[in-house]
């Protein structure tokens, strides 16, 4: 038996020997035919998937238009039924499927920890297992998480959060809120939840909180104050700015306010936000780089730092994204022009480390450059990649190549920030290079290893020592986990053709424009961020 088994085994191995087929040309031809047929079958499957996806995309566009008409008429509609079908057809990568499920499980762990220990409060302190109201008690983590829950298909969790918004979210608070943080987290989160679900409770709440923010724009220049009392409407700037308004805080409301005007038909929100850009155009420098402090009375820039990091970053991001939100039409051309000017300025701030040859973006003080790049500036590669296609071929290649360069950051802490995985998501979608997915997976595994504890996720005061802080930032659920989930999802899930992300990763639907009245007119017939180690 043993001898026969050995002989049989040797006979089987001969079919793997190339010399066997060289002596038998007919069998070689047959083998070649089988190989070619298998190859054609594989690529035919890929072609069918692409063809199905194209057809589904067309059907989905038709359904979206009908849904928008029904919403304008006051009829509640459920989620587009085509979306799940689309996912079933295109999710053919088992590795990405597994990775995406791991990210979803991480979201559930973060969410369930928040529900258990900090329900209704702004943020969870996982180590002490209690909630803290970092933003005046507006349920920041809950509102920030709404669209992430919806996108991941966590329906029960989304419904529980929706009910809290409807029954318990109250903005009548004697609290001096950050106009910027409240806009990107609360207004953006509510509008995104409305766009995804069609539930009008989110739109009504978004209008309520935005109406409470509007008095901040009642200044001589129209440049808003950056803090406002939500109950009494008293607006002011923080004392440490010497009365000045902050560039990012004043220039990062346009996406949300324009979207609110589109969805309510009330132009006042858009007018307030766009007037800021009109004023900044008057003082826009030739290199497109504005100082971080702006006088709200005169509308002029104060002598201060120029940076694409904290207090400057999202202003430049929104110049590009309002152009996208506005369907890249003539009416929003000035946003694109301002952004392109600023990108030339960004290039002038870029240096390389030695000997590692990593790129970093300097800060500018007067005429000198400071070799400092904070972690917020890590959004820049994604922004550059997103904007590259708007150039001609040669310039587009230059900007995309800059976007692909590695960035080096000179900080030793990690508070679960999203900017790096945000850039990886954009770069993967726009280049198709799966290396960016692998890098994102490495980052996710590092979070799981170093930041996950029994009661949520925490940041690291020092990545070298592993010392943990006591805060699960709301943007970890709103941005970091959402971008990771999308990094491992087909590009059709929250497609760049249909959605634009605000700076808190809340996707807002791009409304088609069929007339010449500007970005604020909806199509007929239907009407960056605080946080530090704790």
TrEMBL record:
Report keywords, A-Z: Calcium, Coiled coil, Disulfide bond, Glycosidase, Hydrolase, Metal-binding
| Gene Ontology molecular function terms on file | calcium ion binding; mannosyl-oligosaccharide 1,2-alpha-mannosidase activity
Q: Which protein is depicted?
A: alpha-1,2-Mannosidase
User: What is the similarity comment for this entry?
Assistant: Belongs to the glycosyl hydrolase 47 family.
Q: What species is given as this protein's source?
A: Panicum miliaceum (Proso millet)
Which cellular component, as a GO term, is one annotated location?
Answer: Golgi membrane
* Pfam families, per the entry: Glyco_hydro_47
Q: Does the keyword Repeat apply?
A: no
Task: Please name the PANTHER family in this protein's record.
Answer: MANNOSYL-OLIGOSACCHARIDE ALPHA-1,2-MANNOSIDASE IA-RELATED, MANNOSYL-OLIGOSACCHARIDE ALPHA-1,2-MANNOSIDASE-RELATED
Q: Which residues bind Ca(2+)?
A: 503
Q: In which pathway does it act?
A: Protein modification; protein glycosylation
Q: Report any one BP term from Gene Ontology.
A: carbohydrate metabolic process
Q: Enumerate the cofactors the protein uses.
A: Ca(2+)
The UniProt record lists the EC number as: 3.2.1.-
Query: What sections of the sequence does the record tag as coiled-coil?
Result: 49-76
